[in-house]
Amino acid sequence: VQFVESGGGLVQPGGSLRLSCAASGFTFHTHTISWYRQAPGKSRELVATVRPGGDSRANADSVKGRFTASRDNAKNTTTLQMDSLKSEDTATYYCNVAGALYNEYWRKQWGQGTQVTVSS
Fold it and tell me: What is the predicted pLDDT for the residue at 54?
């Protein structure tokens, strides 16, 4: 199993970023995929989720209306579109299957993540 996140960077408040994640080593198209983030000194949290059929949901109240997850099952990839970014969105972002935070197997399968810094 491998997750490779990309697309992070430095962006000004109010800006946008589009993160990507390439997954391999498992049947991607059958799994609900989630995006997570971890800010310095804080626990990793669930941000958004996209089901195998493409239905997505922003899970964290703080990102509702601003972040949207999507996927391409043919390419085993997922993206996170982040708009109206705020300084509190600064974190390292990861993708994994849904429920990875609580699953003994999947919580060991994190990629390197991609750093997002929102600052003027």
Answer: 94
**Rounded to the nearest 5°, which phi and psi values hold at 101?**
-65, -25
Spell out a b/e string for 74-99, using b for 16 or more CB atoms within 10 Å of the CB, else e.
Answer: eebbbbbebeebeeebbbbbbbbbbe
Amino acid type, 48: A
For residue 110, report the phi and psi dihedrals to the nearest 5 degrees.
-65, 145
Q: What is the pLDDT of residues 26-72, one digit of tens each?
A: 999 999 999 999 999 999 999 999 999 999 999 889 999 999 999 99
Task: Please state, in angstroms and rounded to a whole number, the distance separating the CA atoms of residues 48 and 91.
Answer: 14
pLDDT bin (cut points 50, 70, 90) of residue 98 is very high
Residue 49 CA to residue 100 CA, distance in Å, equals 12
Q: For residue 66, which amino acid is it? A: R
